[in-house]
């Protein structure tokens, strides 16, 4: 309720008797096609009993004089309202269902923002994942991060983004769960148990899916801000789903004093501009993370396994060569740039680190791991990169092998053999 409405209602809200205004509103709420509207209006007018004065008989207060509405006046009612969807078409406000609609099966993982369970919908039998939001320690009401997570998931409905089904509640106000489709694997776990890295054709398929999800989010002004392999889920049909929007936010919104928080993106996947203290950053931070994920898919291990920020910066400098005024003009104006001792210039070591990737593949990787955020490739551009249209072509997701799902409690029998088509 707006302040105005509150003030009108007075200090104690009176019981909401239906006012005439409400009744009119209710009548308007009957869904009516714009084309039918004029005939309905005419019918209403026709159905009014004729009176000498032309006044309507719809008076609910016998003592009050009947309102004087002429036929001409009724027909000239503002036409713009017919373009406003009737209230029945607005999303209904309904209470959240109870978590008891689901049968708890097993817990999948306890992450930084919540516990994730596997559960069964008692009504449909569907297997789902329930992420319990951590609200117990909240002193300031429902956290904005949780609202952003739900909002981002609802905004980014895409084949390669995990599907949110509903939000359910438990017995207390601190028990709130996001219900999602259950996806068998996360890429981090999968990469650890696979005996050999993904094939080039598989990496291409996974990258295309990841890029199309990221492009979709960015088109809708959503920054993920925590892209990494443990937040990429993969089902047994070779489809990736981006998950964990716990750090996501809209980037078009005005930001408060101090800019955007630097407490984003898990260290190994964090873009250099955030490491160097930038408080205005954008979609390019996600693209750096995508570059780290691309490298990890090829290497089968994380690219920058640094223990701290300083070590990470020096690892980046070592791999890519230190930034220069040409490769990153803004570098020297970043808040922490003065605290960093730049190493002597040397040639990048990307080729040595990725000896088997094609020239096009290396080009895409270096365009993702580009220092200058302005120059870093966007998701939409990356989707059109020649790497994806050269041989070996992206493998059809149906041809991906299936794996035992650790999240569903299925056991890997060592040595685990992953049988797949050899191209
Ligand atoms: N929809 C899902 N289906 C299956 N497993 C999931 C699902 N969502 C999350 N998980 C598992 O739970 C882990 C933690 O979930 P995540 O949303 O990343 O929470 P956190 O914010 O705590 O990192 C993921 O890494 C993944 O292994
Ligand atoms: Mg996570």
From TrEMBL:
Broad EC category: transferase
E.C. designation(s): 2.7.11.22
GO cellular component, as recorded: nucleus
Residue ranges of domain Protein kinase in the record: 102-388
Biased segments, Polar residues type: 1-14, 53-62
Gene Ontology molecular function: ATP binding; cyclin-dependent protein serine/threonine kinase activity
Reaction catalysis annotation: L-seryl-[protein] + ATP = O-phospho-L-seryl-[protein] + ADP + H(+); L-threonyl-[protein] + ATP = O-phospho-L-threonyl-[protein] + ADP + H(+)
Keywords in alphabetical order: ATP-binding, Kinase, Nucleotide-binding, Serine/threonine-protein kinase, Transferase
Pfam families: Pkinase
Keyword Phosphoprotein among UniProt keywords: no
Superkingdom of this protein's organism: Eukaryota
GO biological process, alphabetically ordered: regulation of mitotic cell cycle
Region (Disordered): 1-83
Family per record: Belongs to the protein kinase superfamily. CMGC Ser/Thr protein kinase family. CDC2/CDKX subfamily.
Name of the protein in question: cyclin-dependent kinase
């Amino acid at each position: 309720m707006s302040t105005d409405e509150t003030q009108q209602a007075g200090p104690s809200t009176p019981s909401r008797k239906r006012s005439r205004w409400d009744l009119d509103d209710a009548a308007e709420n009957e869904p009516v096609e714009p084309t039918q509207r004029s005939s309905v209006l005419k019918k209403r007018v026709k159905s009014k009993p004729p009176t000498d004065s032309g006044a309507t008989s719809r008076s609910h207060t016998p003592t009050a004089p009947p309102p004087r509405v002429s036929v001409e006046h009724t027909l000239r009612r503002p036409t713009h309202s017919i373009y406003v969807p009737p209230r029945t078409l607005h999303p209904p406000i309904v209470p959240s269902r109870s978590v008891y609609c689901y049968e708890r099966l097993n817990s999948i993982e306890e992450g930084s923002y919540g516990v994730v369970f596997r559960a069964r919908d008692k009504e449909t039998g569907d297997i789902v994942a329930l992420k319990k939001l951590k609200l117990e320690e909240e002193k300031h009401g429902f956290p904005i991060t949780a609202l952003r997570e739900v909002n981002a998931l609802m905004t980014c409905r895409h084949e390669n983004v995990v599907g949110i089904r509903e939000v359910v509640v438990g017995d207390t106000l601190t028990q709130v769960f996001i219900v999602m489709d259950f996806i068998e694997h996360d890429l981090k776990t999968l990469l650890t148990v696979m005996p050999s890295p993904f094939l080039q054709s598989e990496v291409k398929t996974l990258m295309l899916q990841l890029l199309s999800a990221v492009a979709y989010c960015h088109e809708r002004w959503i920054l993920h801000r925590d892209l990494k392999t443990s937040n990429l889920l993969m089902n047994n049909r070779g489809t990736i789903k981006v998950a964990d929007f716990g750090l996501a936010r809209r980037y078009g919104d005005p930001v408060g004093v101090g800019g955007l928080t630097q407490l984003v993106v898990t260290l190994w996947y964090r873009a250099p501009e955030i490491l160097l203290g930038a408080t205005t950053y954008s979609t390019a931070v996600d693209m750096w993370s995508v570059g780290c994920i691309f490298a990890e898919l090829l290497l089968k291990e994380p690219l920058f396994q640094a223990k701290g920020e300083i070590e990470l910066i020096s690892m980046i400098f070592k791999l890519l060569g230190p930034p220069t005024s040409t490769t990153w003009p803004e570098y020297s104006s970043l808040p922490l740039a003065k605290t960093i001792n730049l190493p002597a210039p040397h040639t990048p070591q990307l080729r040595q680190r990725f000896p088997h990737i094609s020239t096009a593949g290396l080009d895409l990787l270096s365009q993702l791991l580009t220092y200058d955020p302005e120059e870093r490739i966007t998701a939409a551009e990356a989707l059109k990169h020649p790497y994806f249209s050269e041989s070996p072509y992206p493998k059809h997701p149906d041809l991906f092998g299936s794996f035992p799902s650790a999240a569903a409690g299925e056991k890997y029998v060592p040595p685990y053999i992953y049988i797949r088509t050899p191209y």
